[in-house]
Specification:
This protein is mainly β and about 120 residues long. It contains no helices and ten strands.
């Protein structure tokens, strides 16, 4: 059974940083693509970033490019999202998802429970 457990959300001031973690189990993490999505209040799910662990290729939405960094620790079966220079518009619930290769949430079958990130002064 695939399990994804996120941690690391919280309240941060504009310009600050946070790191989200997603602990994975139930599948071969080192051979899987992984992705982050987010859902802002009153909006739909938005693709944020993907990583292909076996190639280390990374992809980012234009809205976060240059500010966010996706990475993995295959020894710990953990996915990360380092978020720097945070803006109020980054406020959302962030979800990790197994697999990549798509921007569409319907194409992803396994999700974490979500981590709230609030950017506010």
């Amino acid at each position: 059974e695939v399990q994804l457990v996120e941690s690391g959300g919280g309240l941060v001031q504009p310009g600050g940083s946070l790191r989200l973690s997603c602990a994975a189990s139930g599948f071969t993490f080192s051979m899987s693509a992984m992705s982050w999505f987010r859902q802002a209040p009153g909006k739909g799910l938005e693709w944020v970033s993907s990583i292909y662990s076996y190639s280390s290729n990374t992809y980012y939405a234009d809205s976060v490019k240059g500010r966010f960094t996706i990475s993995t620790d295959n020894a710990k079966n953990t996915l990360y999202l380092q978020m720097n220079s945070l803006k109020s518009e980054d406020t959302a619930v962030y979800y990790c998802a197994k697999d990549g290769g798509s921007y569409f949430p319907a194409d992803f079958g396994s999700w974490g429970q979500g981590a709230q990130v609030t950017v506010s002064s």
